[in-house]
Specification:
heterodimer, A: alpha+beta, Translation Initiation Factor IF3, 4-stranded mixed β-sheet, 2 helices, 4 strands, B: 160 residues, alpha/beta, Hypothetical Protein Ychn, Chain: A, 5-stranded parallel β-sheet, 15% strand, globular, NADH dehydrogenase (chain B), DsrE2-like (chain B)
Chain lengths: 75, 160
């Protein structure tokens, strides 16, 4: 997967992961992929909900050692 | 993506730290959702907009009493539960730090950065004897009609 930008949001609590993801996404072009790392368990539902409402697509999601990773394609 | 932006409006009536925190977290989240967000502060919620440092202004006895008895700024607000005469907020700020959450003053700063419109209700500003120079910069003053204009187009409208 061609990742245009990686966002490290580890250690941040709600609402920061979504706020940062929005900021990072604003810098990308349509079709580019943002990779997000977070340790906020709420993000499991938050990021996909935000992505859907904002017209982006969650391509993949993985959990590794307490770190949630998302790959979101800009709509 | 050219459709008009969705709107979120929040009335912050409460002057409690925890309730204001909830309001500002929702506001920041909504801004990340690319909504136009307005927080309409009225009554005790106005205290979240007060400057922390005292501002020398001319006012009457009653207004001075109000100014003294109300918290000066977001960081001085009490909790809606377990306030314990001011120990509660200290404890809550400790756990906020521990969990890497954002304290209220920073949430307000971030809301401003994200373009959240902060509005002070003019009528209650007058009632509580607050002067515009006692409130933080970058806010607007308005009344019920301005709120309703935003809220009637709102997709999310909350009263906190």
């Amino acid at each position: 997967m061609n990742v245009a930008k990686v966002l490290d949001a580890k250690g941040l609590a709600c609402p920061m992961p979504v706020v940062r993801a929005k900021k990072a996404m604003d810098e990308l072009q349509s079709g580019q992929v943002l990779e997000v790392h977070t340790t906020d368990k709420g993000a499991k539902n938050d990021l996909p909900a935000w992505a859907k409402a904002s017209g982006h697509t969650v391509l993949d999601m993985k959990e590794d050692n307490g770190v949630l990773m998302f790959w979101i394609q800009k709509g | 993506m050219t459709q008009p932006k969705k709107k979120t409006t929040i009335i912050l009536f409460s002057g409690d730290y925890d309730k204001a925190m909830a309001a500002y977290i929702i506001a920041n989240g909504a801004a990340a959702y690319d909504h136009d967000v307005t927080i309409f502060h009225t009554f005790w919620g106005l205290n979240a907009l007060r400057k922390e440092a005292p501002v020398p202004v001319q006012k009457g006895f009653l207004e001075k009493m109000f100014a003294k008895m109300m918290p000066r700024g977001a960081d001085r607000m009490g909790l809606s539960r377990m306030n314990f005469a001011g120990i509660g907020p200290k404890l809550i700020k400790k756990v906020i730090k521990k969990h890497n959450a954002m304290p209220l003053p920073q949430l307000i700063e971030m809301a401003k950065e994200q373009g959240v419109k902060l509005v002070a209700c003019q009528m209650t500003v007058d009632l509580l004897g607050l002067k515009p120079e006692e409130l933080i910069d970058g806010i607007e003053f308005a009344g019920v009609a301005a709120y309703l204009a935003d809220a009637s187009e709102g997709n999310v409208n909350l009263f906190i």
